Amino acid sequence: MCCRYYFSDRPADEKIMKIIALMDRDYPGAYKTGEIFPGDAAAAVIGEGSRLRHVPATFGFPGYKGGKLLINARSETASEKPTFAEAMRCRRAILPADGFYEWSRDEKKTKYLFTLDGLRTLYLCGLYQIVDGQYRFVILTRPANASVADIHNRMPVIAAADQVRPYLTDPEAARRIIAAANPKLNRQQA
């Protein structure tokens, strides 16, 4: 679940335009736009105390013993898992996105893009760690709501724009945001 998402270099959202401007100023060429795959460097927002930072971060924690990248963490159990527990407490990330992709479970494997009404930005909740001096992230997932469930049984945890700072800087607020219902999403064949 949530193995790819889309991040436009021409967003309609002013807040995302500011993130892109900061990323281009501080980290030119260090992150990707368009379809983001595991292993790609992407724009991430992290909290450091009460301050927010925009950094390039690689999609995926290193796998066990050189195995496949870990790209998702189940929100229901992440705080109990050694790989994610400390990050749940103090290293949360937001991954701005225009939408995320899922594939149908039938033999056709139809690709769908899930978005919010009005081209609004999705703020995907994640966790990060620093590995060999590099920021790396996973996306938190939850059981899918009605707008996604017939395509996939899980979906990213999504924060509202006004929840970004609390999610990143306040552990108790982050728990409430993770537990809250996700918004209804639109979908289109990609």
H/E element sequence: EHEEEEHEEEEEEEHHE
Major beta-sheet overview: 5 strands, antiparallel
Number of strands: 13
Count of all domains: 1
Poorly predicted residue ranges: none
CATH architecture: Alpha-Beta Complex
Strand portion: 35-45%
CATH superfamily: SOS response associated peptidase-like
What is the radius of gyration computed over CA atoms, rounded to a whole number of angstroms? 15 Å
Kindly describe this structure.
By secondary structure, this protein is α+β, with helices and mostly antiparallel strands. It has a single domain (5-189), classed as hypothetical protein yedk fold, CATH 3.90.1680. The protein has four helices and 13 strands. The strands form two sheets. A five-stranded antiparallel beta sheet has the order 2-1-7-8-13, with no helix packed on it. It is globular and about 45 Å long. The mean pLDDT is 93.
Please tag this protein with its features.
five-stranded mixed β-barrel, 190 residues, alpha+beta, five-stranded antiparallel β-sheet, hypothetical protein yedk fold, 4 helices, globular
What's the structural blueprint in terms of helices and strands?
Elements (H helix, E strand, L loop, with lengths): L4 E3 L6 H13 L7 E3 L4 E8 L2 E9 L12 E3 L10 H6 L1 E6 L1 E5 L7 E5 L6 E10 L2 E10 L10 E3 L1 E2 L4 H6 L1 H9 L6 E4 L1
Parallel strand pairs: 4-10, 5-10
Antiparallel strand pairs: 1-2, 1-7, 3-4, 3-6, 6-9, 7-8, 8-13, 9-10, 9-12, 10-11
In short:
The protein has helices at residues 14-26, 85-90, 164-169, 171-179; strands at 5-7, 34-36, 41-48, 51-59, 72-74, 92-97, 99-103, 111-115, 122-131, 134-143, 154-156, 158-159, 186-189. It contains four helices and 13 strands.
